[in-house]
Amino acid sequence: MSMKFAALNFLLLLLLLLRYADGRGDEQLENVLRLHSMDHDRRIEDDGGLEARVDSLSHMDHMDQSVMVFFTLKDLKAGNSMPIYFRKKDPSTSPRFLPRDEADAIAFSLAELPTLLRFFSFSQGSPQAKAMEATLRECEIPAIKGEVKFCATSIESMLDFASSILGSNSDFKILATEHHTKSSIVFQNYTILKAPNEIPAPRMVACHTMPYPYAVLYCHSQETQNRVFKVSLGGENGDRVTAVAVCHMDTSQWKRDHVSFRVLGMEPGTPGICHFFPADNFVLVPDSNL
Fold first, then answer.
1. Where would one find the signal peptide in this protein (predicted)?
2. Per-residue b/e over 97-117, b at no fewer than 16 CB within 10 Å?
3. What is the per-residue pLDDT across 208-225, written as a single tens digit (0 to 9) for each?
4. Cβ proximity of 287 and 173 under 8 Å
5. Is 5 exposed, middle or buried (0-12, 13-18, 19+ CB in 10 A)?
6. Mean pLDDT of the chain
7. Single pTM value for the model
8. Which of 37, 76, 169, 244 is the most buried if burial means most Cβ atoms within 10 Å?
């Protein structure tokens, strides 16, 4: 396969997000088994208006803060403020990608879960077992109409999937949220500091990290129109973030109980449903500059 990509972006991806386990044999297995936050990471890909949502974070105690990543396209204006949850993980403790040949040698199937639990020495009903089951189940759910999905268990398989969507001879770049200040705060009000920068994206692939003993990415692409933005944000505590946001212009195939509709008070078919990406998720788009 003849495939090219933006080398700098890919190098950053390797260094910051998707690092191989160091060494081989027992040392690698030890790294593989170091689970990082094996609670099920829900992929999150009442509208009283934006002002009502910003009024007071204390009013949101009844709602899981981690779902506060959604907004509408009309909210995406310089000067607007909104409460946002940015999950933060320490890459040094995150599961590593296995080399492709090693990943391919391990079953990745819900039907094989009992065998996998024995292989990784996890007991049934444990938090790790529940997280593995949730990830395998999510990966095996059929894609919605107009969507192509794939769970990548190696960097190579992720690149193969991306090239099948973006074109085998296409250059592409990786867009990820960047935190410019160090902070332990994960939920606060942010203000959009300047007009968002829209990234041309005639096609795109979004990849989300999934809880598993080794690194797994849930990657998907939709035939419907999506718009990709880089948004400069300033937090109440002085945090500065350049966030990647995706706006879905066709939500007609989404389930009525999709978390975004509950957060925003919208219904399926509402155009311009948007969400921010945490720093360990990313979007791949064609690179028109190469």
1. 1-23
2. bbeeebbeebebeeeebeebb
3. 999 999 999 999 999 889
4. yes
5. buried
6. 81
7. 0.80
8. 244
* pLDDT at residue 199 is higher than 70: yes
Q: Report the 3 state secondary structure along 50-74.
A: HHHHHCCHHHHCCCCHHHCCEEEHH
Question: Could you read off the pLDDT of 135-152 as tens digits, one per residue?
Answer: 999 999 999 889 999 999
Nearest-angstrom CA–CA distance, 90 and 95: 10
Distance (Å, whole) CA 260 – CA 254: 10
| Separation in Å, CA 250 to CA 44, 123, 223, 231, 246 | 16, 42, 10, 21, 12
Per-residue pLDDT at 143: 93
Q: What angle do CA 243, 236, 238 make, to 5 degrees?
A: 75
Q: Quick one: tokens of 126?
A: 């444990």
Q: Compute the distance between CA of residue 242 and CA of residue 15 in angstroms, rounded to an integer.
A: 19
At 249, is the secondary structure helix, strand, or coil? Answer: coil
CA-to-CA dists, residue 125 to 114, 117, 120, 133, angstroms: 11, 10, 14, 10
pLDDT of 118 reads 97
More confident residue, 39 or 83: 83
